[in-house]
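Q: what does this look like with dihydroflavine-adenine dinucleotide bound?
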Amino acid sequence: SQSVAYDYVIVGAGTSGLVIANRLSELNLTIAVIEAGDSVLNNVNVSSPNGYGLAFDTAIDWAYQTTNQTYGGQVQQTLRAGKAIGGTSTINGMAYTRAEDIQIDAWETLGNQGWNWETLLPYYKKSQTLQIPSDDQTAAGATYNATFNGFGGPLKIGWKSDMDTSNVHTILNDTYAALGVQWNQDVNGGRMVGYNRYPSEIDVTLNVREDAGRAYYYPIANRTNLHLYSNTVAQKLRWKADALSPTADGVEVLAENSTTPYVISATREVILSAGALGSPLLLELSGVGNPTILNRYNISTVVDLPTVGENLQDQTNTGLIWNTAGNKSYTASGGYVAYPTAADIFGSRVANVSADILASLPAYAEKVATASGNITKAKDLLSFFTMQHNLIFSGEHAVPVAEVLLTPSGNVVDTEYWALLPFARGSIHISSATAGAPATINPNYYMLGWDVTSQFETANFIRRIMATAPFSSLVADETKPGLDVVPANSTQEEWFKWNAGAYRSNFHPVATAAMMPREIGGVVDAKLKVYGTENVRVVDASVLPLQVCGHLVSTLYAVAERAADLIKNDL
Ligand code: FDA
């Protein structure tokens, strides 16, 4: 056993943890970072800019399994997450899109003072260096508004060098316009609705993925006050024996290939950045959580905080495929995204749909509360749902309701889509007192009518895109699912029979240690401190109280940048 002490101990060298490590080690402080995975700097499954999926089911994919999904076709789903220096940013799709401004403002409305779009935008910019697209790329839609972007931060953002600069862009732009979806010059300025060619996390010069390791760790890895323990799994927090209220003074860890745990001591704080599917488990293993669950595994309760691991929100992803017209082959990178509103998806039915869903919210809240054993409260859920309904259906400024990614690739036009804001909530909890044992993860996919309807109507919207000129001239027949499997004008039930076996997780789990007032089910306060503890924070996707419409990492980098300043201000 070793006896080593640091001012701050961070668990997880992932997307968020490395931001904290970088920013705190700028000061005269000692920092330890504990990471279960290893360096992936030389792993081509990670670095290849078009290598999405290559790392799946390899040693750097945690590949967590959900429970059988009662509402989602009675199947288990795989929740992918990166186990490496850089965390999930080393295996993700590299898409860089943020959130709708009013949806970040909703965090403050929930009671998180100081968290809104205006205070977060400077941190999005601080984290980022936008690499300027070429003239050809600009003409093909790689556009941006300089006021929303940063040009001096650690994270390189840009457009892939093999980006398709053919006329597909103008054809698609005209098609979306015909469907009422207008061109959006910069999807990262807080207004996401429209059609856009989003940028990626990429180092354009080196032509490699820009993960959190490359952005935030390797450039400063030689700082002598920063020590990263790789291949080391955190087991639980250690609590100071003589403290009046729960104070962590270290983290018990186990190095790979060892059976003897040891403690890495923290003199100031412990920061959990193990991800939305990691941090809540470490809290429970450390005695912070629902006493009923902790008792089951003989873990004594340090803080009675029953909503640890609750409020899990994810999305579901389905793909549809068409053959290309004339069997034409496409080789360049796509990057065509659309963020339609409910009005775009539902057309003239939108007012009725809005009223129906509004009337359903009390029943939704009851169902979610009951599923949690009333650990989350129906009255709180109803207020969250009402807020979310407002974001989706408020005509003047509605958030997008779906993401549609469309990619001509080889001889097909591939699409992936997900309804952005399901109401379903699930949970993640330990199923053993042993760190690293599989957890019980239940996202409750398709639990509620809206969750099914919004996915179904997005599929229909995509069929409309393919049938609308001029894009209709680029596609031939639909091959997945195909009209023989799901005919045109199918009912939602008919479609769902196919979808239930075809969807996957969209890999955007959030809110398992939600930042909210404790009275409404929060786990961390507005300084990201865990309620009832003196010095434990969570900084990762767990703290996002509500799902966002963009992909997560841009927002996680910004949240972690802001969290680093909050931690420094407390010094
Ligand atoms: P993250 O997972 O990055 O970090 C957690 C770290 O903690 C990991 O390194 C893990 O190994 C470590 N850890 C966990 N438990 C530990 C323990 N007990 N001891 C030690 N270490 C431990 N987002 C986006 O913006 N654009 C995109 O295109 C995509 N696409 C996408 C595809 C796929 C397949 C996935 C899985 C996810 C995405 N996402 C995405 C989502 C995004 O990548 C993801 O939400 C963030 O990277 C999560 O960052 P965190 O900091 O929360 O955790």
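The chain has a mean pLDDT of 97. The first strand starts at residue 4 and ends at 11.
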